[in-house]
Write a structure and sequence with these properties.
Shape: globular
Strand content: 5-15%
Helix content: 40-55%
Distance between the termini: 28 Å
Strand order of the largest sheet: 1-3-2
Order of helices and strands: HEHHEEH
Radius of gyration: 17 Å
Number of helices: 4
């Protein structure tokens, strides 16, 4: 199954923040973790990941530093900043609301019509 471009884009930030919430990581490992978490259904390219990491870094949600790899080759390590942890917590809450709504509509239990307020992200 191919995941649509819009859905991939919508989930990219919360996925990266969630992966970095697990601990410091580097680009290739983040790509591998996305594959693991999606059972191979999401295959991101470098061209998708690095612009996102750079944007999150510009926003102050991610910090980076250079470190040596086991092979001695330098690689950039990424970690959540204090604001990144806050943004991750907010994203989790927002996606929980969306997930609950989708579960309800897909299971045929749309509820009593109560409004679910979604703020702009």
């Amino acid at each position: 199954m191919r995941i649509g471009k819009d859905l991939v884009a919508a989930t990219a930030t919360p996925l990266v923040l969630g992966i970095l919430a697990e601990g410091e990581s580097y680009g290739y490992a983040i790509l591998q973790r996305v594959g693991e978490l999606s059972d191979g259904q999401l295959e991101w390219s470098d061209g998708m990941l690095y612009p996102l990491l750079h944007r999150l870094e510009r926003l102050g949600h991610v910090e980076s530093s250079w470190a040596s790899s086991p092979t001695g080759r330098p690689r950039k390590q990424y970690r959540l900043s204090a604001s990144g942890h806050s943004v991750f917590a907010e994203q989790r809450q927002q996606w929980s609301v969306v997930n609950r709504a989708l579960d309800r509509v897909w299971s045929g239990h749309g509820g009593s019509g109560a409004a679910i307020a979604l703020g702009s992200a």
